[in-house]
Design brief:
CATH superfamily of one domain: YVTN repeat-like/Quinoprotein amine dehydrogenase
Distance between the termini: 58 Å
CATH class of one domain: Mainly Beta
Radius of gyration: 33 Å
Number of strands: 59
Strand order of the largest sheet: 31-56-55-54-53
Length: 699
């Protein structure tokens, strides 16, 4: 029986529907999905435990054998038992021939029997053996059946001639053979043994080629990938090893280990390659299946079956039928009908009260840096080779007034201007310092980027040319905002200062001094008469922009307040929102010292906020990757956007197509550090991780 066995796990996850993704998931709290047992149909029952299962190449029939010495053939579609034959000895292994017309039965009474599938009658018998048979396998070309014995010997038998073709020479194994697998060309055979090793042999001359030694317990299964380029083995030591073939007999086995997968808590009964060649599936007596990524060695899926699987097989011909045996019962599943109970991702500390709101998880566009996004290299004022050496970690972004472009400036010290339509890089910019804030002037004339060293660079939007550098702060810039006419720029910093800049001259027109901790955000009234600041010192201050005198200082009961982390002002200037470190947002009327509302229920600190141009909605986001939409009339949350990791979004898309390539056990949403509306309010941009996301507007 060729151990394609765990490919049936591939068929199972083909039908997996990722149906219960909850906003604000805690990456550490993931429950394993379980099979829906209502989709399982029993097809064969024995009086003793089943020890071998085989499925016909056309996926229509299943053969089982057990310690009761019976071999049973059943039809999968109807579940009907076609025949039941009792042998003199216990059948320890079963394998169909490639044409599906015959069934090879290896018995512990030292007989290898070939049966006619239609009748169950014996058509050939090899009875010259002196030791009990423990494993058999039929070659893909149908010429040979390999038999392994409990003394470690292996014989290659010619099915047509009904005689031994080759004996695998040399005392390589001295303990029972547990599994056998042929290469796709039928010219090599793998042998797994109780002695914790795997050997490889030449089928034509029976010569030993190499032994793989790396497991610390008996090897339970072994198989090739489809191209015979890699080998996978599983063991009682709870591990799976992926090997590359040896080039010579003296090669160190440790050099041949491509991956060692650990994570099962008990013996790994089966392991095999998936059809794509990029993943490995495994089954364990710890009642779980797992999927492993060959590229990074990580476990990307684990499913709880709820029962110990002592045998399992899958039909590669139909990709519909999977069979497993547990105890005395064999069962079949039509994978097109199989449903899973999806894993539930718990809310972080159960604090997010918006789990029932409409969720948007598919952005209009995602921007990230890769070598194929070089865009128009002639426009870049930074060598494009930088694309390979940095990422936009903790990116800050905002929309151009003309929504054709978006700008991202990352903590890595490089900024990128993206073409929204082509989703490619227009140009890059940098001046040697790490970026901490970015803003775009309403009149489309300047990009302002603040840095960790306290400097601010002004860029030409059309080509990325540096127009000026503003110096006045001595610590990282925490916030930048333009006046609505683009003539004034206000900057906030960790140095506790707020500076107003004249954009016509590039000169400072005054410094606001008074905060005792870093200034977390700044906003300018539409008529430029006042500047509003929020700080980690738990105060909100309003300044007269012309003379920098403090008009009022909201510092009531500081012992009961939280530090402020962000601020954003309504376009009309009537009210502003201040984000707090205690996961709340305070809404204040600008001209009066009056709090209009306090928004609560967030699962993270609202470090990013923006107000729609028409003032109808406020959006807030945090490092939990959830953007919440608030109605400014009712001050209630109405919708959420979720920054799903790119790979997870691909997985969900693939699952809808019937195939999940890499379903992660843990979800870590990309943080939201900045958010902004387009000038027409039809688009929203969010960023903070390695990606920037563009979303359709609120309505």
């Amino acid at each position: 029986m060729k151990k394609i066995i765990l490919l049936f796990f591939f068929a199972f996850i083909c039908q997996f529907q990722f149906t219960r993704l909850v906003v604000g998931a805690d990456s550490a709290a993931v429950s394993l999905p379980k099979f829906d047992t209502n989709q399982i149909k029993s097809i064969s029952t024995h009086k003793e435990n089943i020890n071998a299962v085989a499925i016909s190449p056309n996926g229509k029939f299943v053969a089982t054998s057990a310690a009761d010495r019976f071999v049973v053939l059943s039809e999968i579609e109807s579940g009907k038992e076609l025949w039941r034959v009792q042998f003199r000895g216990v059948a320890s292994s079963l394998a169909f021939t490639p044409d599906g017309k015959r069934l090879a039965v290896g018995c512990r009474d030292k007989n290898l029997i070939i049966c006619d599938v239609n009748s169950g009658k014996e058509s050939a018998k090899f009875d010259t053996f002196t030791k009990p048979i423990t494993a058999i396998e039929v070659s893909p070309n149908g010429k040979y059946v390999a038999a392994g014995f409990d003394n470690g010997a292996v014989l290659i038998c010619d099915i047509a001639a009904k005689k031994v073709h080759k004996e695998l020479l040399g005392k390589v194994h001295t303990k029972p053979i547990l599994d056998i697998a042929f290469s796709g060309k039928s010219d090599r055979v793998l042998v797994a043994s109780l002695d914790a090793s795997v050997s490889i042999w030449n089928v034509n001359d029976g010569k030993w080629l190499y032994s793989f030694k790396g497991h610390r317990g008996p090897v339970k299964s072994v198989s090739y990938d489809r191209k015979d380029e890699k080998i996978v083995s599983s063991s009682t030591d709870k591990s799976i090893i992926v090997w590359k073939p040896a080039s010579n007999q003296k090669q160190d086995a440790k050099e041949l280990i491509l991956q060692r997968f650990t994570g099962h808590t008990a013996e790994v009964s089966f392991a095999c390659f998936a059809p794509d060649g990029g993943t490995v599936y495994s089954a364990s007596i710890d009642k779980t299946f797992a999927q492993w990524n060959l590229r990074d060695g990580k476990q990307v899926m684990r499913i709880d079956v709820g029962q110990v699987l002592n045998r399992a097989v899958f039909s590669p011909a139909t990709a519909y039928n999977a069979v497993w045996a547990s105890g005395k019962q064999a069962a079949v599943v039509k994978t097109e009908q199989l449903k899973f109970i999806a894993p539930t991702y718990q809310l972080p500390a159960n604090r997010n009260t918006f789990s029932n709101l409409p969720v948007v998880s598919n952005p209009v566009a995602r921007f990230n840096l890769s070598a194929d996004q070089s865009g128009k290299g002639s426009k870049a004022n930074l060598n494009l080779s930088v694309l390979k050496s940095f990422s936009l970690k903790e990116a800050r972004s905002c929309f151009f007034v003309n929504p054709q472009y978006a700008v991202s400036a990352g903590a890595g010290g490089v900024g990128v201007v993206w073409n929204v339509e082509t989703r490619r890089v227009e140009y890059l910019f940098s001046h040697g310092a790490l970026f901490t804030a970015v803003a775009f002037s309403p009149n489309s004339t300047v990009i302002a980027v603040g840095s960790k060293d306290g400097s601010i660079i002004l860029l030409e939007p059309s080509n990325g040319k540096i127009l000026a550098m503003l110096k006045g702060h001595t610590a990282a810039i925490t916030g930048l905002t333009f006046s609505q006419n683009g003539k004034r720029l206000a900057s906030a910093s960790e140095d506790r200062l707020v500076i107003n800049w004249n954009m016509d001259t590039g000169q400072s027109i005054g410094v606001a001094i008074g905060h005792s901790e870093k200034v977390a955000g700044v906003a300018i009234l539409p008529d430029m008469s006042k500047t509003i600041t929020v700080s980690a010192d738990k105060t909100i201050r309003v300044w007269a922009s012309t003379n920098k005198f403090e008009i009022w200082n909201e510092s009531t009961q500081p012992e009961k307040r939280s530090e402020f982390v962000s601020v954003v002002m309504d376009r009309g200037g009537a009210w502003f929102a201040a984000g707090c470190k205690n996961n709340t947002i305070e809404i204040w009327q600008t001209n009066e010292k009056k709090r209009l509302a306090t928004l609560s229920g967030l699962s993270d600190v609202p470090v990013a906020m923006a107000i729609a141009p028409d003032g109808k909605y406020l959006v807030s986001g945090g490092k939990d990757g959830v953007l919440v939409v608030w109605n400014t009339k009712t001050w209630k949350a109405e919708k959420t956007f979720v920054q799903l990791p790119e790979q997870l979004e691909k997985n969900i898309t693939e699952s809808k197509k019937g195939w999940v390539r890499n379903l992660p056990q843990k979800i870590e949403y990309e943080p939201i550090i900045s958010v902004s509306f387009s000038n027409d309010g039809k688009k929203i941009i969010t960023s903070g991780g390695n990606n920037s996301y563009i979303w359709n507007g609120i309505n």
